[in-house]
Write a structure and sequence with these properties.
Number of helices: 8
Number of strands: 4
GO molecular function, one term: nucleoside diphosphate kinase activity
Order of helices and strands: EHHEHHEHHEHH
Strand content: 15-25%
Structural class: alpha+beta
CATH topology: Alpha-Beta Plaits
CATH superfamily: Nucleoside diphosphate kinase-like domain
Function: Major role in the synthesis of nucleoside triphosphates other than ATP.
Number of domains: 1
Bound molecules: uridine-5'-diphosphate, magnesium ion
Largest sheet: 4 strands, antiparallel
Pfam families: NDK (PF00334)
Mean pLDDT: 98
Family: Belongs to the NDK family.
Protein name: Nucleoside diphosphate kinase B
Oligomer: single chain
CATH class: Alpha Beta
Length: 149
């Protein structure tokens, strides 16, 4: 099983889309293993997006991401890193197909409502950056044998 870091960004929270986003992951069958509602510092966001530090939008991105609360989550499931990126759509909502989260729920690349780790390696890094070991909840999902052969 893989784990990935998913966050409803400040615009998604303000627009009341947390429930809709959680619903898509729940109904797909993924398992929520950690969650918290937090306002991140600009420093934390600079760290989170360190790979993008040379991009012209980096400063604005870190400011926007720390401007209000975020719903930070870790979801678990088979091949979830790749599958969740497909659920998100493209970085630019304008290139995202209808049916994807960004393709259905937002318009502008700078306000694209959701973050999802793009590789297994980055997922591991991001999960560790946002959550301590004691913040994970260990439980058996009753749906598990009906989701996986
Ligand atoms: N972003 C932006 N302008 C751009 C490209 C990206 O504002 O031209 C923002 C956008 O919020 C995006 C985030 O930077 O989600 C991180 O960019 P990345 O390329 O990692 O896209 P993602 O992995 O979120 O699809
Ligand atoms: Mg990314």
């Amino acid at each position: 099983m893989e784990r990935t870091f998913i966050a409803v960004k400040p615009d998604g929270v303000q627009r009341g889309l947390c429930g809709e986003i959680i619903k898509r992951f729940e109904t797909r069958g993924y398992k929520l293993v950690a969650a918290k509602f937090v306002q991140a510092s600009e420093e934390h966001m600079k760290n989170h997006y360190l790979d993008l530090k040379d991009m012209p939008f980096y400063a604005g991105l870190c400011k926007y991401m720390s401007s209000g609360p975020i719903l930070a989550m870790v979801w678990e499931g088979e091949s979830i890193v790749k599958m969740s990126r497909m659920m998100l759509g493209e970085t630019n909502p304008a290139d995202s197909k209808p049916g994807s989260i960004r393709g259905d729920l937002c318009i502008n690349i700078g306000r694209n409502i959701i973050h999802g780790s793009d590789t297994l390696e980055n997922a591991k890094k991001e999960v560790a950056l946002w959550f301590k070991a004691e913040e994970f909840v260990t439980y058996a999902s009753c749906a598990q044998p009906w989701l996986y052969e």
